[in-house]
Amino acid sequence: MLAPARSRRDTRVLVVTVATLAALLPVLVLAIAAGSSQLGLGDVVRTLIGAGTPSQELIVLELRLPRVLCGALVGAALGLAGALTQTFARNPLATPDILGVTSGAALGAVAAIVLAGGSYSVGAGALTLGLPAAAAIGALGTAAVVYGLSWRSGVDSYRLILVGIGATAALTGVTSFLIARAQLTEASTAAQWLVGSLSGVSWASVWPVLVAVAVLTPIALTQSSTLSVSLLGDDVSTGLGVAVQRHRLVIVACAVLLTAAAVSAAGPIEFVAFVSPQIVRRLAGTARPPLLASAVVGALVVVGADTLSRTVLPGEVPVGIVTAVIGAPYLIWLLTRRKDREMLT
């Protein structure tokens, strides 16, 4: 009985993963074609293979392709990070946004922007490693504090979420203080970046998040089977030979670094890490969000939201606002469902 059920579940996960991957490529091409300069899908494809005109190459390769790729990579990083933290804590609310990791990364990046002149490549004092490094330092420090404060002979998901909410509030206050004390130019740059936007993204913003996703995704996927075992609890996992603490360290490190890379590239784009894994979990019908499919859906969510903001909504609404409008009602709906409400206690 169990073997056929598991086989059907694995097949369904595979189908969902392949379907989302198949949907990603046309969505990326459509996103590149969308905009004020009218380009057909054929024009985009010809330009990507090197057969476009000089004006098309400028629009596609220098203006739109970095933005679309960055959006896809940021969404994939956040979707994967959300799947890891939700499974690790065995709670759908345990996302980098709510656990304070996103706020920690944002604080580190804002400190770099405000204290070093508002540029992408930070060049002052201890912040010479750049914006991605500053975001990673903020995220890792926050994760260590939240994890440490939540530890009581183990990590309870309810306590972890409460500590994370408190850390988020405190870090947001510090970030606001930095902006209030900054010069006008730096404050304006930081405030615009904090909304979560892909506007003005260049290739310099793409490479750090590309490296992070390329390196950390395979590492996270190696922990997939162990994540399934961890759902049974620490005692059972230990009895089955799982090195629980080492496994947790790998999962937390991957989720934190993925979040830091995403935040450093596009700012704190809210709710993607929360919504994407839950969409995939319901499509796949699994006890935990499949990792690869969560990353792909995260990419679809961010690219789709950014395309919507550029083509349908009046003006160019930052993508972080669009994802928040989508994600907040979903969070409310999740909290009102009895089954998921019982998961939180």
Automatic annotation (TrEMBL):
Top-rank lineage group of the source organism: Bacteria
Main location: membrane
CDD domains per record: TM_ABC_iron-siderophores_like
Transmembrane regions listed in the UniProt entry: 66-86, 98-120, 126-148, 160-180, 200-220, 250-275, 287-305, 317-336
Family matches, as Pfam families: FecCD (PF01032)
GO biological process assignments: siderophore-iron import into cell
One Gene Ontology cellular component annotation held by this UniProt entry: plasma membrane
Family annotation (InterPro entries): ABC_BtuC-like, ABC_transptr_permease_BtuC
Membrane topology (UniProt): Multi-pass membrane protein
Annotated compartments: Cell membrane
A GO MF label: transmembrane transporter activity
Keywords annotated in UniProt: Cell membrane, Membrane, Transmembrane, Transmembrane helix, Transport
Keyword Metal-binding in record: no
Family: Belongs to the binding-protein-dependent transport system permease family. FecCD subfamily.
Protein name (Swiss-Prot/TrEMBL): Transport system permease protein
